[in-house]
Amino acid sequence: MKLKYRYWIITLLWICSLATLQAQTDSIKARIDSLLCDPLLNSTQLGLVVYDLTTDSTLYAYNARQTMRPASTMKLLTSVAALDALGAKYQFRTSLYYTGTVKDSVLTGNLYCVGGMDPLFDIADMQAFAASVKALGLHTIRGKLVEVRNFKDSDLLGEGWCWDDDNPTLSPLLIDKKDVFISRLVQQLDALGIFVDAPADYGTLPKQAKQLCVRTHPLTDVLGPMMKNSDNLFAEAMFYQLGASTGAQPAKASHCRQVMLKTLQKAGVRGQYKIADGSGLSLYNYVTPDLLTRLLVYAYRQSGIIRHLYSSLPVSGEDGTLKSRMKDTPAYLNIRAKTGTVTGISSLAGYALSADCHILAFSIINQGVMKSDDGRNFQDKVCTALCK
């Protein structure tokens, strides 16, 4: 009798648990359904998917496979692909080499600056470069200052970028995010008393060149500002690391896409989409809400990805591009998501913590919105519905 009694208690608890879960699910669905009456949707398009990672099931889908422009939620694909293919320990590199001979404190030869498209290379790194030259015992350089730019192709703008936007310059040799590497090197050498009698030039690195200095920054240090602040240069730098990882030299956008496609295949993505760049600036990017959500589900299930991705995402009402959003709502601090804004597009995709402590992956794309705030306000309402 005792065993039978326990069986019925366990069965009853299980039924009650399922009933409670269904009630909570129905409540979220009803709240989202009510938002679809928003006048905004009379003149704009909406794509929305919510996936319950705790129960491993789709919670809500609306225009899930409509192709839409992602704006900066494209950075989710870039970051997940980078963590997937390169790993969190990957290093962005910028190197300095020389050729020739040193005699009487004069280098008769060339300095070679080898770019790796590191957006974090700054004045401290350049000072280290100059100090390594000074360590040769030099007061004069006679030769050339050679920029080695074959890390990537010569395109300085991404495919489908508007020429009149505030676009980052896609140079493989950067300092403080600017394409002024050689002039800054000359300044630092001059500050150390080294006279540079050497014109600037472009070229390749000779096999006999000797390494002077290497400066590196880990992928995770690039990932933070890329996602929190939606930094487009950081995203494009990450994008081209993917292309370089294939062994292509110079790396092209097509090589970067090959690596991204492999990650999407792992995530079980199907249907039509188009990848143009890594930042979401391009007018030629097209994804679906289903694609973004499947990508988030895949990332969540990979421990080597999610712990870095999750911490890099803006937190609602707390930091990054979500700092001023969803305060004084149930979504406060319960949303970690990437925002996206370009003309006509407002998007948000990431993770939500529901009131019953379920982890939800979601993607929202508002397309055709004339005011970005309208899209943001709608997304905030959806997030509140998820967390209420």
Please give a handful of descriptors for the protein shown.
single chain; 388 residues; alpha/beta; five-stranded antiparallel β-sheet; five-stranded mixed β-sheet; 37% helix
Question: What order do the helices and strands come in, and which of them pair?
Answer:
Blueprint: H1 2-35, E1 45-52, E2 57-62, H2 74-85, E3 91-98, E4 101-103, E5 106-108, E6 111-114, H3 123-134, E7 140-142, E8 145-148, H4 181-191, E9 195-197, E10 200-202, E11 210-218, H5 219-228, H6 232-244, H7 253-266, H8 289-300, H9 303-312, E12 335-342, E13 345-353, E14 359-367, H10 372-387
Parallel strand pairs: 5-7, 6-8, 7-9, 8-10
Antiparallel strand pairs: 1-2, 1-14, 3-6, 3-11, 4-5, 12-13, 13-14
Helix pairs in contact: 1-10, 2-5, 2-6, 2-7, 2-8, 2-9, 3-4, 5-6, 5-9, 6-7
